[in-house]
Amino acid sequence: MSQAGPILFVSNAERPPFIAALDEARLFPVVDTDWASAARAVEQVQPAVVLAQISGGYEPHIAPLARKIADQSPYLPFVALDASGALPPNALPFSSRSGNSDRLIARLRAALRVRTLDATVLRRLPEVKVALPEGDPARDATVLLIGRGAAYPALSVALGERVGVVGALSIEAAAKHLNTRDLDGVVLAEGFTPRVTDAFLTVLAEDTRFRSLPVILTAHQLTQSYDLPNLELIPGEPAKVAANALPLIRQHAMEAQLSRTLRSIDAGGWLDPRSGLLTVEAFARDFAKAVEQTLARGGGLSVARFAFDAGNSRAQLDAARILSRLMRQMDFGAAQKDGSVIVVFAETDFRTAHMIARRLSAVMRHTSNGKHEMRSDPVVSVDSLSPSDTARSLLGRLSADASRAAS
User: Fold this and answer.
1) Which pTM was predicted?
2) What is the pLDDT of residues 94-127, one digit of tens each?
3) This protein's superkingdom (predicted)?
């Protein structure tokens, strides 16, 4: 992959041999600078990626450099080589000790794809009015934590303070979550043999859906290479694992957010870039039309409402993303301003809609966030269109059912 701009290599030592592999891979030119000059070099060189070797004398310079990089637009990847301590929030960790230059090249290519995606969104934004998500993309990220060792509870808390966490005590349970959720990272902790770990990583690498997913190993050694550009070994205390895994998770969450934004642009701004479902206005328009057509032509139409605790706004977002992934193409939904999510099942009777809603709510219950393990337990209400209904009466009845169920 070629890119507009060079690679800026930051180091106070001689250029290591594996940097030559970047020239061979046509990821060039590579411009060298030292740590003291790095922040100024970002302005002068306008690089497409910054690759920094964490070596002697970097400490007073890494924070200003990270801030300078974070201020750049479009997204400027910042890869930190061989860091032993905590990294800035936007520094992607990479261990070069294996000497495998292919892993570094794959990591840079994956990061450059996110930069290209960001540039594409910025170029196309004037086409339609799209409400861009604000704040840190990691705020909306969800991570799958797999493990059954002594460190699992502490890792769950450390990750949960930063992102949503879906826990799995077995590889089989993890596989179900991978197939039903949009995840922004996998943390594989202790409790599994090398053979099980190898089999799991091999399956991830062979499935194109998961190839760019950050995969963090906390208690394993990489005995072979896998086609997983964002695979990284981060041992240590849970707080350190969570802090250094977060930049990779954030980059993936940003990539997913940018992809949803592009889909919203393609849809004329009627899709919500944060949830992946329709905007409230588009939902009201489509729902009124669907009710009108169903009453005129006959057939079935059912609606399900998933209501959540008002203090757990994250649960609504998780539910919306699960629905956008699992619902049928003929169905549509939206995250509502009252904290609920409503989905419309076209050509579906009450019994079938109730069964589908129960299955969807079961998937939603497995996400926890933060120290207090706030869970996404929805109050579910389902109703179907009757001949005397309007769009307003059907939604009103649905909300009333939900209020009775909650009480």
Assistant:
1) 0.90
2) 987 655 678 888 899 999 999 999 999 999 999 8
3) Bacteria
